[in-house]
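How a chain folds remains the central question behind the approach discussed here. No coordinates are needed to read the tokens, only the vocabulary itself. For completeness, the protein is quoted in full, as a sequence line and a line of structure tokens:
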Amino acid sequence: MTMTLQADYKRAFKDADIRAIYPTEIDEELVYFVARAFVEEFGYKKILVARDMRLSTPSLHEAFIKGVVDSGADVVDIGLVHTPALYFASGTMDLPGVMITASHSPKEYNGLKLVHAQAIPLTEKNGLGKIRRRIEKGIFTAEVKPGKVTKKDVLKAYQKFVLKGALVKKLDGLKVVADAGNGMASVLMPLLQEKLAIDFTVLFPELDGRFPNRASDPTLSRNQRQLKKVIKEGSYDFGIGFDGDSDRIAFIDEKGTYINSAVIGALLAERMLRTHPGAKIGYTNLDSLIFLETIKKCGGKPVPVRVGHAFIKETMRKKDVLFSAEHSGHFYFKDYFYTDSVTLTLLGVLEAYVQAKALGQTFSEMMKPYVQYQQTEDVIVMVKNRTLALEKTRAYVASLNPIKIDSFDGFFVTFGDVWGSVKVSVTEYALKLMFEGKKKKDAQVMQDKVVAYIRSIAGLE
């Protein structure tokens, strides 16, 4: 079998998914052979296929489906959905699947999020490495009977599943701004508007893979400007923003202030621990310290998890973790197949806010007890050799006389009034870092110092 893959195709294979620049690192041929390897490596007979709205997605979608059927498996095409809808379909139908998306990455990227049945994500260790090696060796069956393609709409079933038990009537009168960002939230929001008695104002509801109004990541301040502007000019309870495939959600209070995702996690964890006393809650090195402090204060059992959706889900399953939150706007629930759900996150926050509002509190007043620290925005610094760069950065940080350095998922360093984490990026050839403190200025000074050092050694191989 002849393959003419891009020279840089191996760069698309990351630890937790397949993601790269289109078409120089990921293209239709690579996606075709990934689909074939996925089916043939694991002996799958039927595959769920979902997709987002990126400009390169339609042709990659067609290539993946062709790869599946050419290997003799059937396709259930669930169409344009947000990523958590794929997890729902995989979990309830007990099927493996793929979401064709580059998630929060820039518009020139695309990728594949592959899952085994029950929405268990593939990583380098549990599947992606095997797929990559099969492609490298060109091991594929010569000819088999082609599979069949059927289409299935899962959105109504998803809506019924995820909104079951929602306090619909108590939400009447709430005004919320939702920034769909021209992404897959444009498909999700009508499902919420149909059932929730909330006056939603939806920004940028048109599907557009060019991301013409803002970039995809909703947790970055530069991508929150329009949402904050609308909130400040109107009379809203709060606002929410989504990334391209809508597995991330960001919250903005009624004053137009972004609420750190781990702070939202602290609110949700405290409430969950009232009904699940002593439960295990997952936290990462990049989460605000208030999240860990809240877990301990409320009697939960904190479980450290590696940053990255696939690793968090793996640990949650292995250790039976009830809930996890990431600084990036991902929130994970045991009751949602140990995966992330923006809808369950929103419902949890709404339930808390309805009770707070009944007591006369605004959204910012509800969150005030959890806003104890100030965190910088995470920074990614591209490097030639991630392992070497991390090792040298740790040595440099150690020379700054910290109180303590802990090794887990990179390292976590404490200086007293400032603390932070440096780690290898899951999706880029880079180091990622973030600092926090009682004063944001102090945290930013430390972060800038470490960033400058990393940039000075970025070219070392």
Remarks:
- The chain has a mean pLDDT of 96.
- The chain has four domains: 9-153, 174-258, 261-340, 374-457.
- Residues 440-457 form the longest helix (18 residues).
